[in-house]
Specification:
Helix content is 35%, strand content 25%. The chain is α/β, with parallel strands linked by helices. Homohexamer.
Length: 272
Protein backbone atom coordinates (compact mmCIF):
# COMPACT_ATOMS: atom_id res chain seq x y z
CA UNK A 1 0.00 0.00 0.00
CA UNK A 2 1.22 3.59 -0.61
CA UNK A 3 3.02 4.77 2.54
CA UNK A 4 3.77 8.44 3.18
CA UNK A 5 6.84 9.57 5.08
CA UNK A 6 4.65 10.87 7.91
CA UNK A 7 3.48 7.29 8.56
CA UNK A 8 7.07 6.05 8.82
CA UNK A 9 7.96 8.85 11.23
CA UNK A 10 4.81 8.30 13.28
CA UNK A 11 5.65 4.63 13.78
CA UNK A 12 9.30 5.42 14.61
CA UNK A 13 8.16 7.89 17.25
CA UNK A 14 5.91 5.28 18.81
CA UNK A 15 9.06 3.26 19.51
CA UNK A 16 11.33 6.23 20.20
CA UNK A 17 9.17 9.19 21.32
CA UNK A 18 10.45 12.58 20.25
CA UNK A 19 9.93 13.80 23.84
CA UNK A 20 12.95 11.66 24.78
CA UNK A 21 15.29 13.58 22.46
CA UNK A 22 17.83 15.86 24.12
CA UNK A 23 17.10 19.64 23.82
CA UNK A 24 20.14 20.16 21.56
CA UNK A 25 19.23 17.31 19.21
CA UNK A 26 17.58 17.47 15.77
CA UNK A 27 15.57 14.30 15.15
CA UNK A 28 12.72 13.60 12.72
CA UNK A 29 12.37 14.59 9.08
CA UNK A 30 15.39 16.69 8.06
CA UNK A 31 14.95 16.68 4.29
CA UNK A 32 11.88 15.96 2.18
CA UNK A 33 8.10 16.09 2.29
CA UNK A 34 5.87 14.47 4.92
CA UNK A 35 3.32 13.56 2.25
CA UNK A 36 5.79 11.98 -0.18
CA UNK A 37 5.40 8.22 -0.46
CA UNK A 38 8.25 5.83 0.18
CA UNK A 39 8.93 2.39 -1.27
CA UNK A 40 12.60 1.78 -0.36
CA UNK A 41 14.35 2.77 2.89
CA UNK A 42 18.11 2.58 3.40
CA UNK A 43 19.34 2.67 7.02
CA UNK A 44 22.78 3.79 8.19
CA UNK A 45 24.49 5.21 11.25
CA UNK A 46 25.94 8.36 9.67
CA UNK A 47 24.64 10.70 6.94
CA UNK A 48 27.77 10.44 4.79
CA UNK A 49 28.06 11.11 1.08
CA UNK A 50 28.91 7.42 0.58
CA UNK A 51 25.56 6.52 2.17
CA UNK A 52 23.58 8.78 -0.18
CA UNK A 53 25.57 7.37 -3.11
CA UNK A 54 24.57 3.87 -1.94
CA UNK A 55 20.93 4.98 -1.75
CA UNK A 56 21.05 6.36 -5.29
CA UNK A 57 22.67 3.17 -6.63
CA UNK A 58 20.00 1.03 -4.94
CA UNK A 59 17.10 3.24 -5.96
CA UNK A 60 16.18 4.05 -2.34
CA UNK A 61 13.88 7.04 -1.89
CA UNK A 62 14.38 7.41 1.88
CA UNK A 63 17.43 7.41 4.15
CA UNK A 64 17.16 6.93 7.91
CA UNK A 65 20.24 7.53 10.02
CA UNK A 66 20.91 7.54 13.73
CA UNK A 67 23.05 10.68 13.59
CA UNK A 68 21.32 13.77 12.14
CA UNK A 69 22.35 15.32 8.86
CA UNK A 70 21.75 18.79 10.32
CA UNK A 71 22.49 19.57 13.98
CA UNK A 72 22.35 23.36 13.83
CA UNK A 73 20.78 25.84 11.37
CA UNK A 74 22.88 26.11 8.22
CA UNK A 75 24.04 29.62 7.36
CA UNK A 76 24.82 28.42 3.84
CA UNK A 77 24.69 25.22 1.81
CA UNK A 78 28.15 24.82 0.33
CA UNK A 79 27.96 21.89 -2.09
CA UNK A 80 31.75 21.68 -2.03
CA UNK A 81 31.54 20.53 1.60
CA UNK A 82 30.24 17.09 2.74
CA UNK A 83 26.95 18.28 4.28
CA UNK A 84 26.12 20.51 1.33
CA UNK A 85 27.05 17.74 -1.11
CA UNK A 86 24.77 15.31 0.74
CA UNK A 87 21.89 17.82 0.65
CA UNK A 88 22.39 18.47 -3.08
CA UNK A 89 22.54 14.77 -3.97
CA UNK A 90 19.53 13.85 -1.84
CA UNK A 91 17.38 16.71 -3.14
CA UNK A 92 18.30 16.11 -6.77
CA UNK A 93 17.24 12.45 -6.42
CA UNK A 94 14.15 13.22 -4.30
CA UNK A 95 15.48 11.26 -1.33
CA UNK A 96 13.89 11.96 2.05
CA UNK A 97 16.23 12.03 5.06
CA UNK A 98 15.14 11.13 8.60
CA UNK A 99 17.13 11.02 11.85
CA UNK A 100 16.28 8.95 14.92
CA UNK A 101 18.95 10.00 17.39
CA UNK A 102 18.85 10.67 21.16
CA UNK A 103 15.20 9.66 21.27
CA UNK A 104 16.38 6.19 20.19
CA UNK A 105 19.22 6.36 22.73
CA UNK A 106 16.81 6.86 25.64
CA UNK A 107 13.95 4.72 24.35
CA UNK A 108 13.08 1.35 25.84
CA UNK A 109 14.76 -1.17 23.53
CA UNK A 110 17.08 1.60 22.36
CA UNK A 111 20.70 1.75 21.25
CA UNK A 112 22.28 0.93 24.62
CA UNK A 113 19.81 -1.94 25.11
CA UNK A 114 21.00 -3.40 21.80
CA UNK A 115 24.62 -3.26 22.96
CA UNK A 116 23.68 -4.77 26.34
CA UNK A 117 22.00 -7.70 24.53
CA UNK A 118 25.01 -8.15 22.26
CA UNK A 119 27.31 -8.74 25.24
CA UNK A 120 24.78 -10.90 27.12
CA UNK A 121 23.62 -8.72 30.01
CA UNK A 122 20.48 -9.50 32.01
CA UNK A 123 18.40 -7.40 34.45
CA UNK A 124 19.11 -4.35 32.29
CA UNK A 125 17.83 -0.94 33.39
CA UNK A 126 18.65 2.70 32.51
CA UNK A 127 21.83 4.10 33.98
CA UNK A 128 20.11 7.50 34.25
CA UNK A 129 16.32 7.49 34.11
CA UNK A 130 14.71 10.00 31.75
CA UNK A 131 13.05 12.89 33.61
CA UNK A 132 10.23 12.97 31.05
CA UNK A 133 9.66 9.22 30.94
CA UNK A 134 6.58 7.43 32.16
CA UNK A 135 8.28 4.11 31.29
CA UNK A 136 10.90 2.92 33.80
CA UNK A 137 12.87 1.38 30.92
CA UNK A 138 13.54 4.79 29.31
CA UNK A 139 16.70 6.79 29.97
CA UNK A 140 20.36 7.21 29.04
CA UNK A 141 22.84 4.36 29.24
CA UNK A 142 22.19 0.94 30.69
CA UNK A 143 23.42 -1.15 33.62
CA UNK A 144 22.97 -4.89 33.89
CA UNK A 145 24.45 -8.15 35.10
CA UNK A 146 25.78 -11.36 33.62
CA UNK A 147 24.00 -14.55 34.77
CA UNK A 148 27.40 -15.63 36.13
CA UNK A 149 30.61 -13.67 36.57
CA UNK A 150 32.70 -13.66 33.39
CA UNK A 151 36.54 -13.85 33.50
CA UNK A 152 38.16 -10.68 32.13
CA UNK A 153 39.72 -12.40 29.10
CA UNK A 154 36.39 -13.89 28.03
CA UNK A 155 34.62 -10.60 28.67
CA UNK A 156 37.05 -8.70 26.43
CA UNK A 157 36.65 -11.25 23.63
CA UNK A 158 32.87 -10.97 23.92
CA UNK A 159 33.01 -7.16 23.94
CA UNK A 160 35.42 -6.97 21.01
CA UNK A 161 33.06 -9.11 18.95
CA UNK A 162 30.05 -6.94 19.84
CA UNK A 163 31.92 -3.74 19.01
CA UNK A 164 33.71 -5.31 16.01
CA UNK A 165 37.01 -4.01 17.33
CA UNK A 166 40.31 -5.95 17.34
CA UNK A 167 41.71 -3.96 20.29
CA UNK A 168 40.41 -1.77 23.12
CA UNK A 169 41.72 1.20 25.11
CA UNK A 170 41.19 0.65 28.84
CA UNK A 171 41.63 3.18 31.65
CA UNK A 172 41.81 2.15 35.29
CA UNK A 173 41.89 -1.40 36.61
CA UNK A 174 40.21 -4.25 34.74
CA UNK A 175 38.69 -6.65 37.30
CA UNK A 176 39.71 -10.32 37.13
CA UNK A 177 36.03 -11.18 36.65
CA UNK A 178 33.05 -9.04 35.73
CA UNK A 179 29.48 -9.34 37.01
CA UNK A 180 27.92 -5.87 36.64
CA UNK A 181 28.46 -3.74 33.53
CA UNK A 182 27.37 -0.20 32.74
CA UNK A 183 27.44 1.16 29.22
CA UNK A 184 26.31 4.05 27.09
CA UNK A 185 26.31 4.05 23.30
CA UNK A 186 28.03 7.14 21.90
CA UNK A 187 29.60 9.95 23.92
CA UNK A 188 28.88 8.91 27.50
CA UNK A 189 32.01 10.09 29.27
CA UNK A 190 30.01 12.31 31.63
CA UNK A 191 28.14 9.29 33.05
CA UNK A 192 31.28 7.51 34.29
CA UNK A 193 30.84 8.64 37.90
CA UNK A 194 27.21 7.46 37.84
CA UNK A 195 28.31 4.04 36.61
CA UNK A 196 30.89 3.84 39.39
CA UNK A 197 28.39 4.93 42.06
CA UNK A 198 25.87 2.31 40.91
CA UNK A 199 28.36 -0.50 41.45
CA UNK A 200 29.42 -1.35 37.90
CA UNK A 201 32.66 -3.29 37.58
CA UNK A 202 33.33 -1.71 34.19
CA UNK A 203 31.84 1.11 32.14
CA UNK A 204 31.83 0.97 28.34
CA UNK A 205 31.28 4.12 26.29
CA UNK A 206 32.92 6.33 23.65
CA UNK A 207 34.97 9.52 23.41
CA UNK A 208 36.14 9.25 27.01
CA UNK A 209 37.65 12.55 28.12
CA UNK A 210 41.25 12.63 29.33
CA UNK A 211 40.41 13.89 32.81
CA UNK A 212 37.73 11.22 33.20
CA UNK A 213 40.26 8.53 32.27
CA UNK A 214 42.65 9.95 34.89
CA UNK A 215 39.82 9.96 37.45
CA UNK A 216 39.12 6.29 36.71
CA UNK A 217 42.81 5.49 37.08
CA UNK A 218 42.90 7.18 40.49
CA UNK A 219 39.69 5.40 41.61
CA UNK A 220 40.75 2.00 40.32
CA UNK A 221 37.59 1.95 38.21
CA UNK A 222 37.63 0.40 34.75
CA UNK A 223 36.60 2.47 31.72
CA UNK A 224 36.61 0.94 28.25
CA UNK A 225 36.71 3.11 25.13
CA UNK A 226 34.43 1.36 22.66
CA UNK A 227 34.48 4.16 20.04
CA UNK A 228 31.39 6.00 18.87
CA UNK A 229 30.88 3.75 15.86
CA UNK A 230 31.50 0.56 17.82
CA UNK A 231 29.08 1.36 20.64
CA UNK A 232 26.32 2.59 18.30
CA UNK A 233 26.67 0.30 15.28
CA UNK A 234 23.75 -1.79 16.60
CA UNK A 235 21.44 1.20 15.95
CA UNK A 236 21.30 0.18 12.28
CA UNK A 237 19.91 -3.37 12.71
CA UNK A 238 17.76 -2.07 15.58
CA UNK A 239 16.05 0.50 13.32
CA UNK A 240 15.76 -2.06 10.53
CA UNK A 241 14.10 -4.54 12.88
CA UNK A 242 11.61 -1.97 14.17
CA UNK A 243 10.61 -0.91 10.66
CA UNK A 244 10.52 -4.42 9.25
CA UNK A 245 8.08 -5.48 11.98
CA UNK A 246 5.87 -2.49 11.13
CA UNK A 247 6.29 -3.24 7.42
CA UNK A 248 4.87 -6.72 7.89
CA UNK A 249 2.11 -5.88 10.38
CA UNK A 250 0.85 -2.87 8.39
CA UNK A 251 1.34 -4.37 4.93
CA UNK A 252 3.45 -1.45 3.74
CA UNK A 253 5.29 -3.53 1.13
CA UNK A 254 8.41 -1.36 1.52
CA UNK A 255 11.98 -2.52 0.90
CA UNK A 256 14.01 -1.94 4.08
CA UNK A 257 17.75 -2.42 3.80
CA UNK A 258 20.72 -1.86 6.06
CA UNK A 259 23.75 -0.16 4.56
CA UNK A 260 26.38 -2.50 3.12
CA UNK A 261 29.01 0.19 2.54
CA UNK A 262 29.29 1.91 5.93
CA UNK A 263 32.36 1.08 8.00
CA UNK A 264 34.30 2.27 11.03
CA UNK A 265 35.94 5.65 10.30
CA UNK A 266 39.08 4.66 12.21
CA UNK A 267 41.50 1.97 11.09
CA UNK A 268 43.86 0.30 13.56
CA UNK A 269 47.36 0.58 12.10
CA UNK A 270 50.24 -1.38 13.61
CA UNK A 271 53.53 0.49 13.91
CA UNK A 272 56.71 -1.56 13.62
Amino acid sequence: MPTPIREIISRLHEHAPLTLAEPWDNAGLLLGDMDRETTFILIGLDPSTSLVEEAIALGADTIITHHPLIFKPLAAINTGEPTGRFVEMALSHRISVIACHTNLDSAANGVSDALARAIGLNEVQPLVASSSAADQHQGLGRIGRFPEAVPSAGFLRRLGKALQLPALFIAGRLPESISTVALCGGSGSDLAAVAHARGAGVYITAEIKHHVARWAEECGFCLIEGTHYGTERHAVPLLAGILQAENISRNWNIVIQQTLTEHHPFVLTHID
